[in-house]
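Problem 12. The chain below contains 374 residues. Write out its predicted structure in token notation.
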Amino acid sequence: MTWSLKSLDEIGFVRRGRSRHRPRDAEHLYGGPYPFIQTGDVKHANLYITEYSQTYSDAGLTQSKLWKEGTLCITIAANIAETAILGIDACFPDSIIGFIPDSDKADVRFIKYLFDALLQRRYQQFTQGAAQDNLSQEKLLSLKFPVPDIKTQKRISDVLATYDILIENNRRRIQLLEQAARLLYKEWFVHLRFPGHEHVNIKDGMPEGWERKKLGDIAQLNYGKGLKEEERIPGPYAVYGSSGKIGTHEKPLVQGPGIIVGRKGNVGSVFWSEEDFYPIDTVYFIGNDKSGLFLYYSLLHTSFISTDVAVPGLNRDLAHSRQLLIAEPKLKSLFEEMVVPIHKQIYILQKYNTSLAKARDLLLPRLMNGEIAV
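Solution.
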């Protein structure tokens, strides 16, 4: 089988994203119907990008461009050489390069997998020592890589995509399970439509037998510990930042289960870890002696936003002062009995996805260097 050396622009259309307006935080640009993909969205996607945290208005669209579903997004700043394929029509800024394959020469999935297997590290090394470690379009196009014929590309992509489709299906099942647990909490403890609520007196907006407590009187928020990306040794323990899982490490800092609360960055974000974990210094954590699923869902429904814009991040005293509505013990126990099986199923699916990703990643370089014929 012959694999020819090609650059990206020899097998498709390559162009930087567009976001011309300054400043970028101008309010009139946002809040409309057009998805606006950012480098973090690309990094956290699996094969396809279908989720996003920001949108453009009509004004935002006029100073950007709407890229079609099927475009490969390649990050050139912040998260260097991360890739994912648009699963929707979307805009993205000039920190992302779009690649649209020539259908006779390239399969977009193959190019994405090629980045994962061979190109990401090369491009990251290519940027080391630059002022901001950015990857220019010129640098991106200067490197050539081996590409087989289109039929072989599609066969390789089909094999690898089988794993990613299973991972994506499991991820959606996890989302549905998480949603079911959140809705149950909201129905019982926000709308107060818990079992037997018809027979319970409500006084000052609180059912009889319930109480309000400060978070600090229930559990203490502990500081995470700094662990730079280059210091992490990949292992079985999740590393948590304020955006959730950001990697793995060979040893944990905290025994699970535990709760993680964003301190800097995504202030007030809340995550649950079933296993031992490593919280870095952008988060607080609650250890397993005080953690529980009722407290976790209570914190998900708690606002940690401070009105003091001069103080960045989440102040621990402020967080400890937040009032939580605590149900009477029997109802708390009943809630946990109902959500524990949900979380067990979530845990099983997460472990399955980890196994699928490992199997795919072992197969990936061997397929991409032609070691395994398809």
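Discussion. The chain is about 35% helix and 20% strand. Students who got a different answer should revisit the alignment rule from Section 12.3.
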